[in-house]
Amino acid sequence: MVKQGRPRAEVLDTAILDAATELVIADGYVSTSIDAIARRAGTTRQAVYRRHPSLPHILIAALSRRFGLDPAADTGSLRGDLVAVQHNQIEFFADPLVMRSLPGLLDEAARDAELGSQLFAAFVTPRRRSTARALERAVQRGDIPDGYDTEWICDLLTGPLLMRALMPTGPIDENLAQLTVNAALDVLTATSD
């Protein structure tokens, strides 16, 4: 019996994402080219472009593979859920690929609305949905009343991490996770008064 391996296309897809990840971490976003990715992956520019129209698209695929699309957690308590969301966000924002690619991706997304929508859909929306689900569970348990501003809570949790990822004003660590969760819980508690 002959064992079949992964299809060649999947092997090449993986090689391209691995090559892009390695190059961006080593050389930075601006210094990474499709030619360099193709060379590192052992393929051609055309093969890369058949799969991804640009470096930002390659990086969105690499980040999706690296971090998945749904970091939701259900710990049984609102604080626990929000801390779990923040731990996932800390892992994301402190990752070398994110730190080396995010400024370039955001710049490209600001100039290309379609790319911006794809980046938002791939990373922002799933993480905001995780927070929204945690808040919905807390309402169902009676921990908080309905009527909070989900988008503002998401901004309170993500904003400081994004700021520190883009402009290193301090560490992206457990203390920051706790501070952001406390800020969100303060707003949710004030909403119930």
Note the main sheet.
Answer: none
Order of helices and strands: HHHHHHHHH
Helix content: over 70%
Radius of gyration, in angstroms, nearest whole number? 19 Å
Q: How many individual β-strands?
A: 0
Distance between the termini: 69 Å
Number of domains: 2
> Looking at the structure, what is the overall shape?
elongated
Find the CATH topology of the largest domain. Answer: Tetracycline Repressor, domain 2
Give the overall average pLDDT: 90
Q: Which spans of ≥5 residues are poorly predicted at pLDDT below 50?
A: none
Which CATH class of the largest domain applies here? Answer: Mainly Alpha
Count, helices: 9
Strand content: under 5%
CATH-level-2 architecture of the largest domain: Orthogonal Bundle
Briefly note the structural class of the backbone: mainly alpha
- Going by CATH, the homologous superfamily of the largest domain would be Tetracycline Repressor, domain 2
